[in-house]
Amino acid sequence: MILLDGKKISDEILSEIANEVRILKHDQKKIPHLAAVLVGNDGASETYVASKVRNCEKVGFKSTLIRLEDTISENELLKVINSLNDNTDIDGFIVQLPLPKHINENKITQAIAPNKDVDGFHPTNVGLLALGNPVFISATPNGVMEILRRYNIDTEGKNCVILGRSNIVGSPMAILMSKNTNPGNATVTVCHSKTQNLKSYTTQADILIIAIGKPEFITSDMVKSGAVVIDVGIHRIPDSSKKSGFRLVGDVKFDEVAPKASYITPVPGGVGLMTICSLLQNTLKAAKMNS
Ligand code: GUN
Fold first, then answer.
1. Which CATH topology does 139-273 take?
2. Which CATH code fits 29-114?
3. What's the CA-to-centroid distance between 232 and ligand 1, angstroms?
4. Is the CB of 96 under 6 A from ligand 1?
């Protein structure tokens, strides 16, 4: 079994981006600037956004964090988005999800200018991805593709089973894995909450990508021997033996699945780190496009 080391790859990518920023600085070009909008104070969202901002600093980007009360109205949030769309110093921005229930996430996503939508969530960017002409690929699926690419994992003609059909992970992942690209060219099956006899699909998977948001859901009996296992889940499980009071687990029962897999991503240290790299790659691309 080979561990797909997200830390190692993300460090490589961060240093590639940092090099590009050094060149931009040397050439007196504009430094990429990412803004993040955080509404309310959800613990997990706070952690993710803090990490995004920290990594911007690491590679030499400018970053702006906009914190808003969870009582903000949809209209007020739309005004903030419009001002970010109009701000020529900001190359790309994200609105961290989930949003409070009184705000329509689709409406917010659609208000972001497609050329600043570094999350790749806007319908224009989703459409371009579906047509095989992507500009900004949503960060997590792009991170998974980067892992497969950098470990030279052969995906052509393989059975790829994806668990989950969300707009941000499962659906774009299915598009990317079925395209005539490398990685890609896989035969893709998407399973979801209404799938019957899930195990009959997962045990056929040469490549199993799990994004269903259920802690340690995938057990060894659900996995084919020699499969490539990509775990997109991340959950905090109470653990009194830890100083923090919790430990992180994925959607896969790692200890029992790992010995059966040919390659597997750990949690933490797998896909999560790649997501941030993809966001920074998209921001660099936005800055180059906008200059
Ligand atoms: N919430 C969970 N993942 C993401 C992400 O990739 N982008 C945004 N904006 N919100 C998220």
1. Rossmann fold (3.40.50)
2. 3.40.50.10860
3. 13
4. yes
